[in-house]
Design brief:
The chain has one domain: 3-Layer(bba) Sandwich (FAD/NAD(P)-binding domain), CATH 3.50.50. Helix content is about 20%, strand content about 25%. The chain contains 4 helices and 7 strands, in the order ββαβαααββββ. Helix 1 links the parallel strand 2 and strand 3. The protein starts with a strand and ends in a 25-residue tail after the last strand.
């Protein structure tokens, strides 16, 4: 899977994707800790702005939903990592993964952010149009494969640093010739 493409629109004649079905003021990509936090701040500071969160996976939580191996925990204290608008109140400052996921789910529900999440949509391409002063965003439905197009005035990437579909593999000399498992 290739990384999403961010670029400025080519001339109108070169565009072939369908017209956007919807326009949002803000589109947040990712329903992990950053996306949830951004959405709450947006709701509080700009209550009249229309927004949505797109999440490629079927659940919110990002890393804390995906990784469920025994002993997974934060390496930062939750008083620092958690939200200022909903402080961490648990006894353990260094929390395990399930506790962090619960915190994210409860935070999203408490502030109504969970109702703005559109699951199963992966951003494939985002193109800025200077003429229209908006982003044109192509989203692929993970179940049907259908491409949906929408536009937004502001695009907020809350995708984190980890790629879920494959980990980072550095370029090692001779890797192509290596016969073992890597």
């Amino acid at each position: 899977m290739s990384a999403p493409e961010l670029r400025e629109d080519p001339p109108a004649a070169a565009q072939t994707a369908p017209e956007p079905a919807e326009h949002l003021d803000v589109l947040i990509i990712g329903a992990g800790i950053s996306g949830i936090g951004a959405a709450v701040h947006l709701q509080r500071r700009c209550p009249n702005k229309r927004y949505a969160i797109i999440e490629a996976r079927a659940r919110l939580g990002g890393t804390w939903d995906l990784f469920r191996y025994p002993g997974i925990r934060s390496d930062s204290d939750m008083f620092t990592l958690g939200f200022a608008f909903r402080p961490w109140r648990e006894a353990k400052a260094i929390a395990d993964g399930p506790a962090i996921l619960r915190y994210l789910e409860e935070s999203a529900r408490e502030f109504g952010v969970d109702r703005q999440i559109r699951y199963g949509l992966r951003m494939e391409r985002a193109r800025w149009s200077s003429a229209e002063r908006r982003w044109r965003v192509e989203l692929r439905d993970q179940e049907s494969g259908e491409v949906k197009v929408l536009s937004c005035s502001f695009l907020f990437a809350a995708t984190g640093y980890y790629r879920y579909d494959r980990g980072y593999v550095p370029d090692f000399d001779g890797l192509d010739d290596y016969a073992g498992e890597f």
